[in-house]
Amino acid sequence: MRIWLAPLHGITNYMFRNSLYRQVGGIDCCVTPFLPVQETAKLNIRNWRDIWPKNNTDILTIPQLMGNKPAHFVDTMRMVHDMYGYEAFNWNIGCPVAQVVRRRRGCGIMPDADAVEAVVRTVTTQTPFRFSVKMRLGLKEPSEGLEILERLNNYPLDFIVIHPRLGTQMYEGEPDLDQMDLLYQHTRHRLIYSGDLFSLDDYLKLQNRYPKIDDWMLGRGLLRNPFLAEELKGCFSGDAKQRFSKYYQLWTQELLDSVKERSTMAKLKELWHYYACFFKLSPEQLQQLLRINDWEQFFDRSLQFVRS
User: Fold this and answer.
1) Any idea what DSSP says for residue 127?
2) Which domain CATH number covers 174?
3) What is the pTM (predicted TM-score) of this model?
4) Rounded to whole angstroms, what are the CA distances from 131 to 88, 155, 186?
5) Are residues 247 and 187 in the same domain?
6) Separation between Cα atoms, residue 71 and residue 230, nearest integer Å
7) Domain co-membership, 53 together with 186
8) Among the four residues 43, 77, 173, 297, which has the most C-beta atoms within 10 Å?
């Protein structure tokens, strides 16, 4: 059983990942938030701090790429390898955000199976790197994902991550496990399941349904409960609130060492939408916290919830 940290754009950057890894166990690998592919002449990967090797020493890290032009993938992967040494890459064709989809990136490319296959064919025939794909059921129709999956059976991919929702659903509604069943049955590749895995009970039901899957990706579930990976692996120990308190204070200090108090507060407010589940805050309590605009007051009030 392997646990993967999901790439959540704007959240799971290297500072977040390192702070989490140093305080909790059970996480084996991660995929970074996406980076845009470009032709060699336009690349400036020296600014890509999220994949600097010195920022990723704690755990296996795979850079995720976003784009739709095969040659740009080859150029980007070669330069990232030459400069930073990475030998494995992931392609995001699952992002459902509207501005991404409009540019035929992320989930926006899924209706065009020819374009998806062109990227995979080019990368797997023109580079020596391990390549994987993170996808959804489709953008508007589950038939999109099924066609892509069947075509990808012809290529030596490292693995495929599947989130069993359509792009048009964003993160609403229930995952469509009946459609996931079809993809599970029609792929020859190693699958990683991603989507609405929030508890040990969720995992046991999914593991029973998909016994050939050994890799599980946690995103929002791990934000709601930082110790979820430990719980799934049966290695959780200690007092959850005490451990969270230590984790929260170290993560806050990590932020303050890098950005100003206002930016730290904005980032923590985003995360408190998830932390509220861990502490079972009422909507009113959460809103009271989020309405505070003074850093000292916000941090003191958040610590009250953490220590209560």
Assistant:
1) -
2) 3.20.20.70
3) 0.95
4) 6, 10, 19
5) no
6) 41
7) yes
8) 77
